[in-house]
Amino acid sequence: MRYCINCCIHLLPYDLHRQCFRCRGPNHNNQKCPVCKGENKIPLYTDSKQMKLLAVLEVRTDHRESWNGFFCLRKGKLCSLIFGLIIMTLVMASYILTGAKHGLLLIPSPFHYGAFTSNPSLMDNESLSDMKDHYQPSKMNISYVKDYPSIKLIIDTITSKIEFITRERPDLEELRKQEPHMFSVIPNKFLPNSKNPCWYEEYRGNTTTDPYATNSYALYSKRFRTIFDYLRKVFWNHLYHYKDKHYRLRCLPHFYIIGQPKCGTTDLYDRLRLHPDVRFSAIKEPHWWTRKRFGIIRLRDGFHDRYPVEDYLDLFDLAAHQIQGVLQSEAATERGKMNNIIIGEASASTMWDNNAWIFFYDNSTEGEPPYLIQDFIHAFQPNAKLIIMLRDPVERLYSDYLYFASANKSVEDFHEKVAESLQLFENCMLDYSLRACVYNNTLNNAMPVRLQVGLYVVYLLDWLTVFDKDQILVLRLEDHASNVKYTMHMVFQFLDLGPLSEKQEALITKSPASNTRRPEDKSLGPMLPTTKAILRDFYRPFNTKLAQVLFDDAFLWKRT
């Protein structure tokens, strides 16, 4: 038998007696209550027997405070729990907001993102440095965050967003509308008796005219003025006279070494130009297709006047003079014999650098460039040959950092720049396609290290949309370094070059390597193991796809 301790009402076995809390309302008087009468201690009896040991319950009765609904012990605990959760939520919210503002969060907030500017005209009004500041997120205090798992979360997000989607190839008429002057200068047919693409162009200047007076390469670079001084002296000796008109031989390259930076392109260039049938442009890396034709000299300096295609063609005049000499001598003795001299161009930016497109082409493709460099090269030279030299993208990035960083170089600084660049790339991938992020000028200028240059397969797939696979030779620097003779023979065969004497071959294959790492950079040692592990994970899906496209597992770079 149970009794209410407040009003002594007899309770049934399953009666909760919910009105019990109200029975002692504000009018209750302990002195007059027959149960409580002057006592604050109320004994409980069960079955007429007094309870022993914990049977007496001491109850403090205080009627001065009217809590009403909060006397229940269970309800009190629930309220305390809710109150604690509210306090915890407020503390966490304060941490997140403060950390995101000052860059203290270990894992970047997905809401902290500098969006692309979709209107090119708006971007034209900003300097490149202003755009970098606009896009760059708050600086991360990640100097000492070298734990692999935290940054691995960023890489996992990037990997989950990767899609290799084939781009649509633009029509020839669309390209003509974009570059009408270029199409008016370069013909669609070349001389049939020359292996290299060349043609005769009428020269309308007189003997007092400086043919290179307006050449932008000569105007903006002191290094090349000596070359153009020589060209001025010999220019008139190489004009072809026909029916009271003067003609000059113009040429484009037969092959391009298109990439990648810090992958051995300089060494390949230096060896190839020793071949008796190979000539190169007057400047190793004109960067005309990617930068100069848009008026970019240095990205940090903004835009200058655009370099016309005539300025680019001037760079091949030295080689054109030699080809013309061969054509004229052979025409007089053995008509119909082919000229076998070929010209190369070795701008390592050609494969990947399409950063300027947004300033000149319509941005109606959700952040992806509607036209790429290869579209225009193929329009003029559908039979061009392309050579690509690649290396382990992890080592390429570190070499790139050591070569281009000007001060405060260290393995810790490299680690921080990698982490920041990964965050920027992740932010882009959350909202845009892989191609849009890879070719975005604002993002690429904001990243402290050039992560995107190592995404080889993205660029290669886009080149394969316009050129056949047998027109592209892909080499590995690791193979070239271990067996120069083998890789050079592959190049000779690819370019269909004539045989060499033993002396000529020894000169090409046994010369010391070019553009090796500087001693002061070697002293820094290798990158941190954590940094290498992070970059391995980042590049792995791209290397896997590259190996599939080339049917060669060596491009997985598992042993390097």
UniProtKB/TrEMBL annotation:
<dbReference type="Pfam" id="PF00685">
    <property type="entry name" value="Sulfotransfer_1"/>
</dbReference>
<keyword id="KW-1133">Transmembrane helix</keyword>
<keyword id="KW-0472">Membrane</keyword>
<protein>
    <recommendedName>
        <fullName>Sulfotransferase</fullName>
        <ecNumber>2.8.2.-</ecNumber>
    </recommendedName>
</protein>
<feature type="domain" description="Sulfotransferase">
    <location>
        <begin position="253"/>
        <end position="517"/>
    </location>
</feature>
<feature type="transmembrane region" description="Helical">
    <location>
        <begin position="78"/>
        <end position="97"/>
    </location>
</feature>
<dbReference type="InterPro" id="IPR000863">
    <property type="entry name" value="Sulfotransferase_dom"/>
</dbReference>
<feature type="region of interest" description="Disordered">
    <location>
        <begin position="508"/>
        <end position="527"/>
    </location>
</feature>
<keyword id="KW-0808">Transferase</keyword>
<dbReference type="GO" id="GO:0050659">
    <property type="term" value="F:N-acetylgalactosamine 4-sulfate 6-O-sulfotransferase activity"/>
</dbReference>
<dbReference type="GO" id="GO:0019319">
    <property type="term" value="P:hexose biosynthetic process"/>
</dbReference>
<keyword id="KW-0812">Transmembrane</keyword>
<comment type="similarity">
    <text>Belongs to the sulfotransferase 1 family.</text>
</comment>
<dbReference type="InterPro" id="IPR052654">
    <property type="entry name" value="CS_Sulfotransferase"/>
</dbReference>
<dbReference type="InterPro" id="IPR027417">
    <property type="entry name" value="P-loop_NTPase"/>
</dbReference>
